Structures are given as structure tokens and as C-alpha cells.
Amino acid sequence: MSTKSYGIVCALTHACEVLEPRWTIPILSEMWCGSTRFNDIRRGVGNISPALLSKRLKELELQGLVERIEDPATGQVDYLRTQRAIDLEPALNALSDWAQCNIEARVALEDSDVSTLMWKMPRYIFTDQLPNRQIVIRFHFNDEGLDYDTYWALIRPGKQIEICSSIPDFDVDLYIETNRVSLSAILLNRSTFAREVDEGRIFLSGDNLLIKTIDRWFYRSKAGEEGQVLQLA
Predict the structure, then answer these.
(1) Band of the pLDDT at 228, cuts 50, 70, 90?
(2) Could you tell me if 146 and 213 lie in one domain?
(3) Do 218 and 193 meet the contact criterion of CB atoms below 8 Å apart?
(4) Whole-prediction pTM
């Protein structure tokens, strides 16, 4: 955390001292999405080292924003938001809304990480809007320099969605050819599947029903409603 205070008598400066250290807000955001285990938080946040994440979690504990719970029987540790952290959510939602409207789209998306994007993918797929059967979706990214450029989403009724980086022994139902900026743009409500397909940045093939209904089962929030979608170029 900050080693020297601002020296200003202002409530906002005290909030900055708590929240401005790098990765603090992304960590809290990932916990708001439901992650409680160290490795899950790290995967969701992205390019943060284990040592730095451990340091930030300890700092958030000291600030009363995070509670560390250890199961004495198994040694398993969970990190939970305190009410103090929950009370921050409206303020950070407002900050997110401001960024959505005022930060140029490509600047906001160009540093997106494919592995982190795919780790979060299960939370963007609404299984109740999909046919009640096993579905396999193949994502291929055409970006250069990726450690992995192909991932599979395995969706089975009554089970959690699995994200695989090796070929599963099942037929593929839907192929999504894309790049990290285009897919991130859709997830962040900066664009739509229709726009990205029309512009040639995303190519869909396979099960026609899944393609026709993709806007029903693939997440978009209210911020992505028509009239608020921003151009990438």
C-alpha cells in the first residue's frame, strides 16, 4: 500500500490510498464475480504474480475489505468480501460505466489476455438458453505469439462448463474463428457478433441453430444495448 499519505484532508484521498495500488481493483472485481480461491482469483485477474497477489490480499485483509477463511480439516483457504468491500460495488460500477463511455475502445481492449479471457468464458455462456444436450465450441484465435491459440468449451447438461486447451474426444458443434480484441469487445459490450462478423473479424461455422441464437446464449449486459456500442476502428 502507499508508504506516504497524500497529506490532504479529503475522504476521496483516503479512498485512493486504499484502492490505487496496482491490481487492487481487479482483485476485488474478480471476487465480485464469485472467485474465492487463490488460484481462481489469479487466473481471473490475469498477469499478476503469485507473490504480488498474496501481498495484495494481505493488504486488503488489513484494510478490512477481505476476510481469509481457512478450513482446519483440509487447510483450504477462501477469501471472502467483507461488507465494507460489498459497499464499494456501486462506486466501482459507476467507474466502470464512466470508462465504458470515455475510454477509446481499442485502447481498452488491446492488452486483453487470451488465457484469462477463456478462463472467464463459462460465466458468459447461458446454458439455460442452449439445447439440452452436450455442446462443444471451438475457439481459435488468429493473434500472433500466443502460447495457445485454440480452446474448447465443453458444455454438458447439469455440469459446469469445462474449458480445454487440448482436443477433447468429442465432435465440435460450433467453430468460432476470432482474435482477442474482437471477442473481448463483445464481452465488454464494445461490439456485437453481428458487427464483428460483418467486418470479417469473426467467422462462425457449424450448427446453424447455435449460430442463429448466439445473441441469446452468449452474454451481453444492458450496457451493450443498441446505441451504446462503440466502434473498434
Answers:
(1) very low
(2) yes
(3) yes
(4) 0.63
